[in-house]
């Protein structure tokens, strides 16, 4: 149960766990307790990828928006700090034309000739004592708002870097798939040509040629979709770096230009809540909600305000600052809520409920963080197994192709069997490419799930 008073709130209860998954993960690259570098994407050892991520971090409109929100929160705190911690001092100068009917006052005449000019210059000073902490808790809430926007900015940076890396890996995978598919199409075309010649010679059935045309049409139909996906990924990368898709100059990514990180840092579960910016942002909202409880509670109690006015008064051209024209007023006021129809108590109860909501949201963010890491760890485990199996399948397909090629050269099999072996090899290579791309992408996802190392940056 979350506890709160008008002066302070208890720190949030952080869900804890000794490990991320119920059973150990067999991914061999994981290094327990190793820190994540702030520029984690450089572990893929691609200068083009590093340059594109840095360009996105410098030019992304989404980061510009997050930066502006942070500055706005900082200025809101500065404005409110000046308005609550220091006395308010205001100067006033006024000139008025005054005309009074003496008969309305029950006298035949006034001691001064009317109408007359009345001039007033004054300085007023007022200060409200923060006896019950309303102003202090309000400033705490504004500071928590700054912390929230700062962590939201870090989360936006992490998300942007992850999106760029994932899109680059996706582009590299699509390029490999397109190249392999185009080779399969060429093989299918040659295989169809052979079948059609055999049909003319009467050594093959017309149904065989129809079946070959069907296979060729189906594999050709894959290419436009792969090309569309590639172009869309490129468009996405252009937007990430703040440029229109038609004007952006982007490098071309290939899987051979990327290196799989030999080690994957795995932060301790006890540190996750301090490392993920989204969890830190949820914690800041909880602190802000607690401060609002303090403000609502302080509003139940009296407020004391001291005020002073110093000025000078003159009429009909008199010297406004001459001796004897000055005046001063000193005052104090006490405001005690007596009856508001239950409004103030209801507002406090509402603030407490909002605090409890923020506490539940914080706990949920921590649990989702653990789930995110656990999901990625299992994905990496599956990726390793899948890549191993598909690599083995590609090896066997290559062996089969080499044997068939040797038999074809020796006249033991027809060209038809050689083309079929080549098609199987290319299909196995496409499957391996997809498995490798998944392993790259899930490696990047782990860096994101663990917080991305933002706390290691030079300005931290």
Q: Could you say which overall geometry the principal axes of the C-alpha atoms support?
A: elongated
Give the proportion of residues in helices. Answer: 55-70%
CATH T-level topology: Outer membrane efflux proteins (OEP)
CATH class reads Mainly Alpha
CATH superfamily: Outer membrane efflux proteins (OEP)
Tally of distinct domains: 1
Question: Count the strands?
Answer: 6
The pLDDT mean sits at: 88
Helix count equals 8
Can you characterise this structure?
- The chain is α+β, with helices and mostly antiparallel strands and 460 residues long.
- The protein has one domain: Outer membrane efflux proteins (OEP).
- It contains eight helices and six strands; from the N terminus they run E-H-H-E-E-H-H-E-H-H-E-E-H-H.
- The chain has helices at 47-59, 61-85, 134-201, 206-240, 272-275, 277-298, 343-409, 415-449, and strands spanning 30-32, 88-98, 116-128, 264-266, 303-315, 326-335.
- The protein has a four-stranded antiparallel β-sheet, with no helix packed on it.
- Helix 3 runs antiparallel to helix 8 (415-449).
- It starts with 29 loop residues before the first strand and ends in an 11-residue tail after the last helix.
- Residues 1-8 have low confidence and may be disordered.
């Amino acid at each position: 149960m979350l506890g709160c008073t008008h002066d302070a709130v208890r720190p949030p209860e952080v869900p804890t766990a000794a490990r991320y998954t119920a059973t150990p993960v067999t991914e061999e690259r994981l290094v327990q307790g190793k820190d994540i570098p702030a520029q984690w994407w450089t572990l893929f050892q691609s200068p083009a990828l590093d340059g594109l991520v840095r360009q996105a971090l410098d030019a992304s409109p989404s980061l510009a928006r997050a930066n502006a929100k942070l500055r706005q929160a900082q200025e809101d705190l500065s404005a409110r700090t000046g308005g609550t911690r220091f006395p308010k001092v205001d100067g006033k100068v006024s000139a008025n034309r005054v005309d009074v009917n003496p008969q309305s006052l029950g006298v035949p005449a006034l001691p001064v000739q009317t109408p007359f000019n009345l001039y007033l210059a004054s300085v007023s000073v007022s200060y409200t004592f923060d006896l019950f902490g309303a102003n202090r808790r309000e400033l705490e809430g504004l500071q928590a708002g700054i912390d929230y926007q700062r962590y939201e900015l870090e989360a936006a940076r992490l998300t942007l870097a992850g999106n760029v890396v994932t899109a680059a890996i996706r582009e590299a995978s699509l390029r490999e798939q397109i190249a392999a598919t185009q080779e399969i199409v060429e093989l299918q075309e040659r295989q169809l040509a052979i079948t059609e010649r055999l049909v003319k010679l009467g050594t093959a059935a017309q149904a065989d040629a129809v079946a070959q045309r069907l296979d060729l049409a189906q594999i050709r139909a894959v290419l436009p979709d792969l090309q569309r996906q590639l172009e869309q990924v490129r468009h996405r990368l252009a937007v990430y770096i703040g440029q229109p898709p038609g004007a952006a100059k982007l490098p071309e990514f290939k899987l051979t230009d990327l290196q799989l990180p030999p080690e994957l840092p795995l932060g301790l579960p006890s540190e996750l809540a301090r490392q993920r910016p989204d969890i830190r942002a949820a914690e800041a909202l909880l602190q802000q909600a607690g401060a609002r409880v303090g403000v609502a509670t302080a509003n139940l109690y009296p407020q004391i305000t001291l005020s002073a006015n110093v000025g000078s008064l003159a009429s009909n051209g008199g010297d406004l600052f001459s001796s004897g024209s000055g005046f001063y007023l000193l005052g104090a006021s006490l405001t005690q809520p007596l009856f508001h129809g239950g409004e103030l108590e209801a507002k406090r109860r509402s603030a407490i409920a909002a605090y409890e909501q923020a506490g539940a949201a914080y706990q949920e963010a921590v649990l989702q963080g653990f789930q995110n890491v656990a999901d990625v760890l299992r994905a990496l485990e599956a990726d390793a197994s899948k890549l191993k199996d598909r690599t083995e399948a590609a090896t066997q397909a290559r062996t089969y192709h080499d044997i068939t090629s040797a038999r074809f050269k020796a006249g033991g099999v027809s060209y038809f069997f050689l083309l079929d072996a080549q098609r199987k090899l290319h299909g196995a290579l496409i499957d391996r490419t997809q498995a490798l791309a998944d392993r790259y992408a899930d490696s990047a996802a782990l860096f994101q799930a663990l917080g991305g190392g933002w706390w290691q940056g030079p300005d931290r």
